[in-house]
Design goal:
alpha+beta; two-stranded antiparallel sheet; 23% strand
């Protein structure tokens, strides 16, 4: 397939709180080397075929805690940044880019595993602020016509270290871009966003000026 769908999903105010506003773009892959990051870039530039915006009821709840993280606790660089975001969320505002787009970006595997490939600080902030399910936060989803991406596409999230991984063992690893190159690829310690949230809690509550950085 030479295209992917980019879905921009926002919570939609309703009595039951189970509606989302979805706008989609069909983004064509310019060549075989295009990655998910290239697709996001094309979306942000408005390159693609727009699909009508829809309001949909959430049929299947996705727990934020069960989403797979790509950073261990050492890949979370700033508790102060998270505290600022939490205050913003609690004041009624969302965490968005300057263009008004969500920071939280995800893909889903064929096995229905949700993977957060961008926006760890933002998603942790929403969780601390009390959000429980995916439809309660603004987010991007990149998918093919079957509603997921293939395993090879996921390897791009590990950058230059992807050559050390294969289509299945990436689940055992995370990436820490704050660390020296030789230590960026790490064995997974927290298996999902719930465990990552539990791990940062002590730092979040302990010292207002403490940053977690692997040096």
């Amino acid at each position: 397939m030479n295209y992917r769908f980019v879905k921009l999903i926002y919570p939609y105010k309703s009595k039951d709180g189970n509606l989302t506003r979805i706008s989609s773009l069909k983004v064509y892959l310019r060549n075989k080397s295009n990655t998910i990051y290239d697709i996001v870039d094309q979306y942000e530039k408005g390159l693609g075929s727009k699909i009508k915006e829809t309001i949909k009821e959430v049929k299947k709840l996705v727990l934020l805690r069960e989403i797979i993280n790509l950073h261990n606790i050492n890949g979370i660089k700033s508790m102060n940044q998270i505290r600022t975001m939490v205050k913003q969320i609690k004041s009624g505002k969302d965490i968005l880019s300057p263009r008004g787009l969500p920071n939280i970006k995800l893909v889903k595997t064929k096995q229905s595993e949700w993977i957060l490939f961008d926006g760890h600080h933002s998603l942790l902030s929403y969780m601390i602020a009390g959000r429980t399910y995916l439809h309660e936060v603004p987010h991007f989803v990149i998918e093919d016509e079957n509603g997921h991406v293939n395993e090879k596409e996921i390897l791009i999230f590990f950058g230059i270290h992807s050559k050390k991984l294969n289509d299945s063992n990436w689940r055992k690893y995370v990436i820490n871009w704050q660390a020296p190159k030789a230590r960026q690829l790490c064995k997974r310690e927290q298996k999902n966003m719930g465990e990552l949230l539990d791990s940062i809690s002590v730092f979040y509550n302990k010292n207002r000026n403490y940053n977690i950085v692997d040096v």
